[in-house]
Amino acid sequence: MNNTAARHDRSLAHLRAAGLGALADLGFRGLDNDVRDSVIITGFHASRTHKLTPGQKTANQVLAIACASVEHGFAYLKNWWILTKLRTDPARATRLLRALLVLTNPVNR
User: Fold this and answer.
1) Backbone φ, ψ for residue 36 (5° rounding)
2) Relative to the CA of 81, which of 27, 36, 45, 51 has its CA 20 to 30 Å away?
3) How do residues 20-40 score in pLDDT, each as one tens digit?
4) In a domain, 95, yes or no
């Protein structure tokens, strides 16, 4: 999902209503500007005139580590072209995908 899709689907309002939060990359900067009740956590952005402090760099590294496994999972699922033809209830699809990941994950063997 990108920033435009998140705005269109009102993801921020849904997260806030459910009492949940999300980690996101710098592409989602500006989506959640509520400083007191921030739902989406993004990294720090550097520019030519504004260099990151060591603490901000460390925070970006921690965020990247947390997001890496999710990104790897999405990349793995995108290799399964048959999923583009899947037309079913999302809850059923979630169970199916979990089963497929367990069966194909070499770590679990």
Assistant:
1) -75, -35
2) 27
3) 888 887 777 777 766 666 777
4) yes
